[in-house]
Amino acid sequence: MKFYLQSFNDIVTNSSMEVYQEATDYTVSSIKEIINTILKIAESDKKCDDLFAVYIDYENMFEDYFEDIARRCEGNEELERQIDEIRESRESYSVLYNKCLEVITANGLPTIEEFVENYDSEWRYPSTEVRIIPKTPCTKTDLAILDRINDLFNLEAQYDG
Q: What residues pair up with 54 in beta bridges, in sequence order?
């Protein structure tokens, strides 16, 4: 098995070069396909979805998302009240999002997926990760090994000069 994760660039310029990566539905389906293939080779009758929850973690984008939602709600007092009430609960952003998703979509506001897909910032790109969560209990060591799958998609810059 070979993993080709990065390409190398030996072009030198006077400007900086940055590479941004984000998890998408394609990333999730690719990881599921890899796990399904490994299970098939091992002659298992299980599929990835039988054993793991694999999803995009938007936690790093929720703060920007809720700021955007708050701006879009200006002038709609009832919607502002509902969103503020949920935001004041001090729960994690993902829990808040799930609580207010119905209010958001009922008012024609973008979901987190739509927000990230259309994210536009002059100084930042979307930051998303894939989570692979076992559906049965496992050890911390097992979880650390699973985290290595996500590490395959991390990109490090290297200066060789």
A: 132
Distance, first Cα to last Cα, the chain: 32
| pTM as predicted | 0.67
DSSP 110: P
pLDDT, tens digit (0-9, with 9 covering 90-100), for 25-73: 888 898 899 999 999 999 999 999 999 999 888 888 888 888 888 888 8
| Helices then strands, each counted (H, E), the chain | 7, 2
**Buried b / exposed e along 67-105 (16+ C-beta atoms within 10 A):** eebeebbeeeeebeebbeebbeeeeebeebbeebeebbe
Instruction: List, in sequence order, every residue forming a beta bridge with 55; answer none if it has no partner.
Output: 131
Question: What's residue 154's pLDDT?
Answer: 59
What residues have CB less than 8 Å from 118, skipping those under 6 apart? Answer: 110
Q: Please, are residues 130 and 151 in contact by the beta-carbon 8 Å criterion? A: no
Do the beta carbons of residue 23 and residue 153 sit within 8 Å? yes
